[in-house]
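Dissemination and training. As part of the outreach component of the grant, students in the summer workshop were shown how a complex can be specified as a set of sequence lines and then modelled as a single object. The example used during the hands-on session is reproduced here so that future cohorts can follow it. Participants entered these lines:
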Amino acid sequence: MSPISSLCVYCGSSRGANPNFVPMATDLGRQMAERKIRLIYGGGRVGLMGACADGVMASGGEVIGIIPQHLQDREIGHSGLTELKVVDNMHTRKRMMFDLSDAFCVLPGGLGTLEELFEVVTWRQLGMHDKPIVVLNLDGYWDKLVGMIDGIIDDGFVQPSARQYFSVVNSIGRLFDILAAPPETQEPDHPERI
Ligand code: AMP
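and obtained this result:
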């Protein structure tokens, strides 16, 4: 049994250029279902979002999608979920995704994914929560982001302690290792952490 029951996955509403990403997102969903971890996500049928949700549902797991009314057409609200909550606006969506989740995972994605990552990281920086945040750096997709944040730390705009607000891992297996380990047993300077 996993110590967490609900994992929020932030990821692209596109499929991305790397053909490995869709099967990886589906595989993450499958492994979540096997571990009885509920998926909380943005509710769309498109891109990596849809692939991850399909992976959970195809393996008998539970998915709660949360989508604002105005994005129902653009992101195509997924009709095959355990539950699709249609809300008034983006703020309600993101707050509900945050409240329903025990931890956050970030797959490859675009500007929306970045916005969601930085929101939960900065909320953690402000002491608003201590839920784990794990960036799944599939095929090195997030290397440039990690390098940029390291550079910003070197430039003195982010405290080095910010390295502990989130983890960066290269595989789905490592994601579940991090989620299984109580924070005090995690190595603060693990090379995969930033
Ligand atoms: P993207 O990574 O741009 O494909 O977006 C992934 C998800 O992030 C989509 O479901 C977007 O609706 C969502 N998202 C969250 N916050 C924002 C925002 N401020 N701007 C654009 N998309 C956002």
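The radius of gyration is 16 Å. Students were then asked to discuss how this feature might be tested experimentally.
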